[in-house]
Amino acid sequence: MQRKYIYKRDWGLQFRMAVTMILLTLLYLVFAFVLFAKSGSAVLLFVIPLAGLVFQYFMSDKLVLASAGARIVNAQQAPELYGIVQRLAQQVDLPMPRVAIIDNSMPNAFATGRSPKHAVIAVTRGLLNQLDPDQLTAVLAHEMTHIRNRDMVVMTMAGSFAAVAAWITQWGLWFGIGGDRRNNNNGFAVILIVSAVVALLSHMLVLALSRYREYAADRGSALLTGQPEQLQSALLQISGTMQRIPNQDLREAQPLSALYFAAPTKDSLMELFSDHPSTEHRIARLQRLEQQMASR
Length: 296
Fold this sequence. Notes:
single chain, alpha+beta, 4 strands, about 65% helix
């Protein structure tokens, strides 16, 4: 029997999202200050990147869906999938997200959108074909928790900071920020060093936030369905299947890795440099939560 889901704001996640955005903003300001001192171009450093961030904010869902090759479906086209998402949305008192399907054999899913009102949950054909209804519900509850936590847009914008820094650096390499390199080698070296540091720190901050938000969504799924064992089962099945997915399919999914339910990779990378916690760590946390729920 399912327990009634009572949403409690995950203050750990909210704190981490706020700190990540503050630190990324400070990093960008330092980066911009260094480049401004060398180039003196306010348009290059502020106007164009700001326009890019605004565009990313309002168009993030469309860009992500297009990149994934996702197709929006209605209740007639995918009745079981649509029905599960609809029930979960009603349980957490959220607007009904749009539902999309990706024609890919990789079993996976993600949520995107700048707010619950503009949210989309996308699933692959592989996920629909391989999971039973209870497992599928657990994965969709995980994605619904992402929507409830409003962490999708923070991840999108956080990733955009690193992209903006990379874009400015590339612009500088192309058009020679810092003047004539032959006469200003020191300035050019400073730009490259600062760019590398900003890119590395931004990437590590985004990875740390990404890992924590997966733990938070796992917890939300367990509470929402009352069946943490189903999410554990889904994680194990997806992890095992991922080893048999063609490398080409996995490479195509890599740009959206941080958004997916499971990392689209066969490699056992060091968790510090991954956007997802390991399957073992996710299952261990779910098992502890299952014990806590059983003792209540």
